[in-house]
Amino acid sequence: MRKSLKNVLKGCLVAAAAFLMLPGAKAQASVVQTGATTNSATIRWDAPSSTYSEVTQYQVYVGTDYQNTALYRTFPANTTSCTITGLSAGVKKYVKIEYTYRSKGSTSTKTYTSSAGSTYDVKTLPGKVTGVKQDRWYYFALSFYATWNKIEAADGYEYVVRTNTGKVFKKGETGYNWNQFSVNKISNEIIYTVQVRAYTKINGVKCYGEWSDPGYFFTQPRITSIRVANKKMTIKWNKVAGATGYNIYVSTKPRSGYKKVKSVGKSKSSVTITKFKGKKISAKKTYYVYVATKKKVGKTTYTSGKLYYWNCKGTKFNSSNFGYF
User: How many whole angstroms separate alpha carbon 132 and alpha carbon 159?
Assistant: First the structure.
């Protein structure tokens, strides 16, 4: 029966309001977790057995470790389980059980205190992962890193990477509580989305939280041509699939002084400008240029930022002649 129940629960996605019942604990454990939600945890403990004494009540303490606990509640002598409520999603707590007892048959009111056991691994189910974002995009290595906010009680995370068309590009899991992974063999001309969900193991059962909102991953488009002639500058770049537009920035210095000179829609892959900071374009000057990809989702617009710039003086341009910010 235990084995079949465990098979049913393994790999389950537990909704935020659902209550998880767990298989029986190991025989040698005196305090074990038997259930969880995103804001509560249920535990049980073994009643002490003695010929000469009797339990009068139990005290349940909850905290971060054995030195930092507070009394949660007291329970009658016939109680051997309780549900701890008011917790946050995805947390881990230290729980200890103490009991007071007196001699059997004694008429004295004097009682004594002893321990019924403790555990460090009382967990709530993980909540929704937040903060999924691009940590770094390696343009020429064709890879990027994704990261997100850790969930305290997570034992790992499952992730899925999709292309701009929704096709699954990669999926997998991170072990332990490692909140980062890399994606290789990507295209610089595609916007990817990443979603992550946490999982925690309670009595050997792997239970998943809710999927995160999508994080958007993309880089600058590669500039293919910059040409200055007839007091005009024409800039061309490769489109990024899934982009909703592009911002074009120009400076006369490699790492500072950039000004946005144009903002265009997704159908554009070139612009022509005639002035920069109020002055006509000159073939005698060296100009530094970068293009930022835009992705608008609802009311939020994401941008690729800047990693690389290209430069041009007159008609002298080489697409491999770039610099890093």
Answer: 11
